[in-house]
Design a protein that fits this description.
Helices cover 27% and strands 18% of the residues. By secondary structure, the protein is of the alpha/beta class. It has one domain: Alkaline Phosphatase, subunit A (3-Layer(aba) Sandwich). The strands form five sheets. Strands 1, 4, 6, 7, 8, 9, 12, 13 and 14 form a nine-stranded mixed sheet that branches. The protein has a four-stranded antiparallel sheet with strand order 15-16-17-18, with helices on one face. A two-stranded antiparallel ribbon has the order 2-3.
Length: 520
């Protein structure tokens, strides 16, 4: 199944691995949606694996670069799974989006929008739910924003508070960044370490189990030590250079991209940056194959539900920038979504969905009788009879500025008719600007309409009110860590672009955001 750099079958993954499948019967519902648990013949999935690759763009799934497949192993997984062609994240940065995935709710419900926000104590998570029903719950990940302890420090240099992403987990392992041998900026912990940590957990696991694995290789700057083995794999201009020489040039290019204006980056630079990203994607693809093969050998795949998605995408010059957490355009909100399990698929599912509905999908498969919280979404795997299309969702996403000197909020809504609006407002609820697009005719969001956006503004306001009312009904109160800077700026009366003097604490936090690749 897995292919090496030379295109031949690589060792390390068995035939049983990704191809092990309990059945290929497509889902069917006589009308609307049906309980998915019935599709398992009254037997719920014994094990559940949620795999998240940070900043993984939806368009990389099934992509080909310079004649080579970018995701051969995920493509093989997709051939026996439900594949959602238009899945959206609820934000373009990790904290907000992962809070939605784990709680199954939109940002106005869980309230995790800013650097200091934490998942509310009474906000039920998928790990909370599964633990109630006898599952052992594990997390192994490498992103500081979802670590058991917050990366922001107090004056004594100790973590001030957790962000709440450990809720419901029996064991939540955060792998610290690796130190670079050359003394450079530490890289995110390698995916191989994630796999090793998981291997230790599942060799003799308490079953059934829920596992959440989070990889960071597809997050900028894409230059960890391990992915170097694929350096130059998709390079269109090798010109006899060795992988070491290509890697050195890539490091120079990435520094250039993140330190100069867009006008100084050449088309050749843009092409190579996309190739570097694809090499990182390919590395994650290989590591996911190893993870699934390990699970197949250790506990089997017959009764295992596997879900692959991303917390957000990444911009690669589509709107003159690189990265994420600064806009809500398609390249940063569209994410892959693959769901594999006994009797689920294979099928390609058209129609827009949100990966916030992963919670409801798991609940419907495992414990439909759980009534800790009313359903906020719907199970993703319901497919209308005779087709592979589900009813279009109204997609909603939000992004709060991460800069302490700014206090704007972006809200995105996509309607069934492919009409989209991105509303920019301030923290007082005032609308500052509205961008409107027709995604059917303009999928790249290059030509905004000048038409009145009041209808969309009202739609956004209604969605936010409904989410907030739903949260209050379930006793969810938004909380924050001890960091005060964003709240202080939120109360200021200056304009959104006003220059303010940062405190030492705020400067330190800004440097942390830069080191994590969010402020470039």
């Amino acid at each position: 199944m897995k292919r090496g750099r030379d295109g031949k079958m690589a060792k390390g993954i068995s035939r049983r691995g990704l191809l092990e499948i309990a059945g290929g019967t497509a889902l069917a519902a006589a009308a609307g949606f049906t309980s998915l648990r019935g599709l398992f013949g009254r037997k719920k999935p014994e094990n559940i694996v949620l795999i998240v690759s940070d900043a993984f763009r939806a368009d990389r799934l099934g992509a080909v670069r310079n004649g080579k497949s970018v995701t051969p192993n995920l493509d093989a997984l997709a051939c026996e799974s439900l594949v959602y062609e238009e899945c959206y994240a609820t934000s373009s940065w990790t904290k907000t989006s992962m809070a939605s995935i784990l709680t199954g709710t939109y940002p106005p419900y869980h309230g995790v929008l800013r650097v200091e926000d934490t998942i509310p104590r009474h906000c039920d998570t998928v790990s909370d739910m599964l633990k109630r029903h006898g599952y052992s719950t594990y997390a192994v990940q490498t992103n500081p924003w979802v670590a058991p302890e917050a990366p922001t420090l107090d004056t004594h240099g100790t973590p001030v508070k957790t962000y709440g992403f450990h809720k419901g987990f029996d064991r939540c392992t955060f792998l610290q960044p690796d130190k670079r041998a050359d003394g450079g900026q530490p890289a995110y912990a390698d995916a191989a370490k994630v796999n090793h940590g998981i291997d230790v957990l599942i060799r003799r696991p308490f079953r059934p189990f829920f596992l959440y694995a989070h990889y960071m290789e597809t997050h900028q700057p894409w230059m960890g030590e391990a992915p170097r083995k694929f350096t130059g794999l998709y390079c269109s201009e090798k010109k006899g250079r060795s992988p070491e020489e290509i890697f050195a040039d890539d490091c120079t290019l990435i520094k250039k991209v993140f330190s100069v204006d867009r006008k100084d980056v050449t088309p050749q630079d843009e092409r190579r940056l996309n190739e570097i990203y694809d090499e990182a994607v390919h590395y994650v693809d290989v590591m996911i194959a190893k993870l699934i093969d390990n699970i197949a050998h250790t506990v089997g795949l017959e009764d295992t539900l596997i879900i692959f998605t991303a917390d957000h995408g990444d911009e690669l010059f589509e709107h003159s920038h690189v990265g994420h957490a600064r806009s809500l355009y398609e390249e940063v909100t569209r994410v892959p979504l693959i769901i594999r399990g006994p009797g689920l698929g294979p099928a390609r599912v058209a129609g827009r969905v949100s990966n916030a509905n992963i919670y409801e999908t798991i609940r419907d498969l495992v414990c439909p009788q759980d009534n800790a919280r009313e359903a906020m979404g719907r199970p993703l795997a319901g497919i209308a009879a005779g087709s592979s299309r589900i009813g279009d969702e109204i997609i909603f996403a939000e992004l709060h500025s991460l800069l302490p000197s700014q206090h704007w909020l972006l809200s995105k809504v996509v309607r069934k008719d492919s009409q989209e609006a991105i509303v920019r407002g301030n923290l007082k609820g005032e609308v500052l600007a509205v961008e409107r697009y027709d995604l059917g005719k303009d999928p790249g969001e290059l030509a905004a309409f000048d038409a009145d956006g009041e209808t969309f503004v009202a739609e956004v306001a209604r969605l936010k009110r409904d989410c907030s009312a739903f949260a209050r009904k379930h006793g969810v109160q938004h909380t924050q860590t001890a960091t005060k800077w964003q709240r202080r700026f939120g109360r200021k009366e200056e304009s959104e672009t006003a220059e303010v003097e940062l405190t030492d604490e705020e400067k330190r936090l800004t440097e942390q955001l830069k080191a994590l690749g969010y402020l470039n």
